[in-house]
Design goal:
single chain; about 900 residues; mainly alpha; 43 helices; about 75% helix
Amino acid sequence: MAEPMKALPLQAPRPQIMTGITDLLERKLLIQPGEGGNVLYFLLFFMLVSTGMAIGRGTADALFLKRLGIEYLPFMYVIQGLLLAAVSTVYAAFADRIPAERFFRALFAVLIMLVLASWYAMSASNSPLVYPAYYLVYEVASEILLVHAALYMNENMTTTQTKRLAPLVYAGAQFGAIIGGLLLVVAAPIFGVRNLLLLWCTLLIAGAIVINVRHKIHGTSTHFRTPKKSRNLMKDCVEQVHQGIKFTYRSSLLRASSLALFFMVLSFYILCYSVNRIYTQTFLTEESLTQFFGSLTAATSAIALFMQLFVTNRAIKRFGVRTINLLFPATTLVCLSALTFSFTLPAALLGSFNKDALMPAFRNPVRSMFFNALPAYMQGRARAMSIALVLPLALMVCGLILILMQNMDTPVYFLVPGVLAAGLYLFYSRQMNKTYVGTLLATLKERLFLPSKHMYSDLQGCGDKTLEEIMRGINNADEEVSVAFAKILVGSFPEKAAGIILERAGNMETATADRVLNLLAPLDLSAHTDKLRQFASNGDSHLQTTVMRLLLDKNHKTTITEVITQLDSGNPRMQSTAIHAALRYPDTHNYRHKAIAAWQSLLQSNAASRCAAMDNIQDIALLASQEQQSLLPDYLNAFISLLADSSDHARLHALQGLQHWHEDISPQLANAIIHTLAIENPLLRQAAVGCLHLINEDQRNRLILNAIGDGHIRVREAGIDMLQTVSKHYNKCALEWISGNQASLRAQKTLMTSLMDAHLPRSIYEEIAHSKSGGILLLQDALAILEQDNGTHVNSARSLLQYMLKEQLDQTMELVLLALESLYNKETIRIIHAGFSCGDSRHIANACEVLGNLVKDSRIGNLSDALQVSAGEDPGHRSRLFVSVDEVLQWCADHGNSWLSQCGKQAMQPAGEIHA
């Protein structure tokens, strides 16, 4: 007994060790707290699907090539092109209209039936037609699965999660391909190639079980929203492709991209045909060919996996997306050229390495980056066109070329068209590179130069030309641009806004239409009730409740009668709307007690119900004191529960509810709000800033100051709004923070921008410009001395300090020029700013000349010198403000900016003694 008792203390720490290892692994893989289960699920699911597809690929190729013959493969390309065009059109018609997991279940069911039918036909019949049928089943299924897998991830992850986790998930898919390849090697000689179809069916069934269990526990995909209803789905899908063709005609990048895709498919499938012809000649039986395909799949997938994890991102970062975009076209050209001179097994292996390792590692991610350069409203249409038109057309052309040339004596006759296609693929990839930056800039310009809310009041009373300009913005194909101009229309032409916005909303996605309809709340909607009710009948439940609340707030009698019957609804948001109606309208007073009971039920139920109850917070004011006291504890518990939820959607609802909360909160809830201010999602940070009126004054000013200096503009604007709400003397407070350097430079710029319309005395802006321009000179001299001493710097903190000083310099210059906008003509100052920022020595000289003639005040006369030095010019008549490096480091260490001070103190440490 003694020995086991002594062993116990050694065994106890193991869970802690495992937890530490798990935490370390998650940090290395960029998995954030709460995401582990989600990542494991996607890894398992993609691994199962990819393992099955590897088995399907090996068996389909081996059975077709050995039972029917390589000479029939070109005919398969033609049929595959026609079939892919039809199936892609059907897919595009339905994929966005149902949750991705539901489509996966249907796809798995169909695929299981087709694979089982293929196996049965092979077992019961000697007909050779079953092998091309099975080959087509695999080829079409692989294309649809690849596209739908990306959609499935997008419906269950945010954009930031996808950037972090997609490479890991796709690496899991590559690992599944390795497993599938090894299974082919081991199982083909034991069970026979034909019976491996049953193994694929087993994996499909396992995938269907996994996805069913997942969504039975977690419900529908998180980010799926039901689109607007359509009476003719196929017509809509064809219209998508038609619009894609029109956009391609207009966009130089899309034109080059489509031609590059066309010639890529030609060269790719000629390469596939060539290597398969060599493999068929080399391996005499279908078992040996299947084993070879398994080994080849495992090897190329392992190489692709290694490159995806360790090479791709580094190569793109080192050489740039445009250089890497030329890699796969160049290697494809090399491989086809090698086959032209040596139609042998080594050249075929080189071709397989190119198409099965380099393509997924480099070509696929780079193509996605090029698509991201397009406006969001063009991306879906461009992808639809490539799948339903360009890819099938190229396949058919490839098949016809091979049919005409494969019977000739030498492979050169069909390889020469492949080499030409690869050459054109490389040429149009270069054309893509030339148009990439221009398209990216045009997209940024379209999305970044949106109208600001300051325009709302400025445009009131303007004429028809202004309205026409706004209408062009509202009818922009990019829905985000349309929403921005709809906000202007409501503020500047309220009498015309309702009809125009309702007309545009009819052509928007459901989620965007919901946002636009919320803009109509302050308008007269009496003439538009029928149109609104039509929206409600065609939209999802979220859109229906939005419309009902709009009509309720306009005292629409029919809507009140309809809504009040929904107190027992199973839809939490509909129930919330019914509670709102029961408390707001005198005719519904008989439902008051039932409404309060339903309200309490929502607050004590699941996260979705608690989110719905957040919409009723402002209705608390309609309750008697005793009724309020019965609900307040439930609300506080709901806030805590939702803020602790792993879903951003739930936390956002809680924060939006807290923005309207005016009762006392617990320290736990206050800490939860403060914690949210530091998380990654800017929408949550913005919402949390709106709750700072609930935090005690001692902490609040510091938190508001941090928000005003946040990296995201919406968070900064929310911080300004909150400061204006809680501060009795906003202008005085803002000026103190600017002049006293109590805020970061980004925060000071935000505060300065907010004061631009405050009509403060001119002397205030002159003083700010004078003090900050002096700071520019100090920062410039400090940087110059540190750069001269670079050869002998003693620790790595010096580099960080230099980077920090450059950032401070740029932000200070922005602040000075912003102060000058209140002293001189705004447009003139902005032109001067652009001149300094462009980097062209002629423009810099002209900008300095303008500034020197414009700024006559001696107190800010050194500004021209400072800006010339900042732009790389030497004014030639200024003495140094610092003597030595030690003096610079001490100045940084004593600086009022806490981060600059910390960097200065670190840089003063001897080598090897840097402290956190």
